[in-house]
């Protein structure tokens, strides 16, 4: 439609120009003008022609603007994921930190291994990118799963030194304890996540530089972790100076944490080196990180503990992960 209108306007302006020139020519034939009059008439004719050309050009430009489609807005760019990226779960409002894909050293050298050599030998492992909870799951978060009918209550409602712990609002932001591996798995499923694999947990704790602790190789102290025969649990996130390079907190001390894998003693020698998920079966499930009562050797990031899947105690909790 704009193109037809432009054609009509152009034709009208051309006719107007033709009539103007004819009128001037007719007047010229009836009277013999002076030289000055002829020059003035010629100038007027040129001016009229130029004016008409300008009008045609302006009209064409106007119609082009009307006919041109509106430019589409550029889509917002999605920020690239990397160390420091976080997300919040809609289910339990847990903050998760991002761990990029890549290789890291898992386990310990013979010189640094535990007395039972369960964390020996050290070996390279490649993991795809994943997310892991910034802190251990809290009493308040676990209560939501219990209220939804998806999680069993903890075996006991007290802690080591507190008769009233689970269900007491004063300790809502403390790690849930007295939960079995089965209960931890049920919670992570309810929260649309899963237990981290042992390899994921260790990478989130120690990064790719083979450090001993989440914060580095410096000896642990009371500013970095809740350990070394402390009386009980502390609120999650109480030791920000003990954070791992990815921002995960409390990965040394406070409570031991269930991971997804079964335990067998030779898995480090025979297991896959890309995205290992542990043996297919076993008698024991693995725990990581040490607890409030653990000595310094047991909060090293590579240390391993194993218990039956139904085991529960006041020093055991968990966190979840997702791919």
Structure description:
This protein has 323 residues and is of the alpha+beta class. The protein folds into two domains: 2-67; 86-322, paralog of FGE (formylglycine-generating enzyme), CATH 3.90.1580.10. Helix content is 29%, strand content 13%. It has six helices and ten strands. Helix 1 (2-30) runs antiparallel to helix 2 (35-67). The model is unreliable at 1-31 and 66-71 (pLDDT under 50).
CATH topology of the largest domain: paralog of FGE (formylglycine-generating enzyme)
CATH superfamily membership of the largest domain:
paralog of FGE (formylglycine-generating enzyme)
CATH hierarchy class name of the largest domain: Alpha Beta
Strand order of the largest sheet: 1-2-5-10
Domains (count)? 2
Question: How would you briefly describe this protein structure?
Answer:
This protein is α+β, with helices and mostly antiparallel strands and 323 residues long. The protein has helices at residues 2-30, 35-67, 139-147, 181-190, 198-206, 267-270, and strands at 86-88, 95-99, 102-106, 123-127, 130-133, 256-263, 284-288, 305-307, 316-318, 321-322. Strands 1-2-5-10 form a four-stranded antiparallel β-sheet.
Topology:
Elements: H1 2-30, H2 35-67, E1 86-88, E2 95-99, E3 102-106, E4 123-127, E5 130-133, H3 139-147, H4 181-190, H5 198-206, E6 256-263, H6 267-270, E7 284-288, E8 305-307, E9 316-318, E10 321-322
Parallel strand pairs: 6-9
Antiparallel strand pairs: 1-2, 2-5, 3-4, 5-10, 6-7, 7-8
């Amino acid at each position: 439609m704009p193109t037809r209108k432009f054609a009509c306007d152009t034709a009208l302006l051309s006719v107007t120009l033709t009539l103007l020139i004819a009128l001037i020519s007719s007047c010229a034939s009836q009277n013999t003008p002076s030289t000055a009059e002829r020059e003035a008439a010629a100038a007027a004719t040129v001016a009229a022609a130029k004016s008409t050309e300008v009008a045609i050009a302006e009209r064409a430009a106007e119609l082009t603007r009307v006919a041109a489609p509106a430019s589409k807005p550029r889509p917002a760019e999605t920020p690239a994921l990397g160390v420091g990226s976080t997300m919040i779960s809609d289910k339990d409002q847990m903050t998760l930190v991002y761990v990029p894909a890549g290789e890291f050293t898992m386990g310990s050298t013979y010189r640094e291994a535990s007395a039972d050599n369960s964390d020996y030998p050290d070996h390279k492992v490649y993991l795809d990118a994943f997310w892991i909870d910034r802190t251990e799951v809290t009493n308040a978060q676990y209560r939501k799963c219990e209220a939804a009918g998806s999680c069993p209550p903890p075996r006991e409602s007290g802690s080591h030194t507190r008769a009233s712990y689970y269900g007491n609002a004063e300790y809502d932001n403390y790690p849930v304890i007295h939960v079995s591996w089965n209960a931890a798995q049920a919670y992570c499923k309810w929260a649309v996540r899963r237990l981290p694999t042992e390899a994921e947990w260790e990478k989130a704790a120690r990064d790719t530089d083979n450090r001993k602790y989440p914060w580095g190789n410096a000896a642990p102290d009371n500013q970095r972790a809740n350990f070394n025969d402390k009386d009980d649990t502390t609120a999650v996130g109480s030791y920000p100076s003990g954070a791992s390079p990815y921002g995960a907190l409390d990965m040394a001390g406070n409570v031991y944490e269930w991971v997804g894998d079964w335990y067998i003693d030779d898995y480090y020698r025979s297991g896959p080196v890309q995205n290992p998920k542990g043996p297919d079966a076993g008698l024991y499930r693995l725990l990581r990180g040490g607890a409030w009562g653990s000595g310094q050797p047991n909060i090293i990031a590579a240390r391993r503990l194993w218990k039956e899947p139904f085991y529960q105690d006041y020093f055991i909790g968990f966190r979840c992960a997702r791919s």
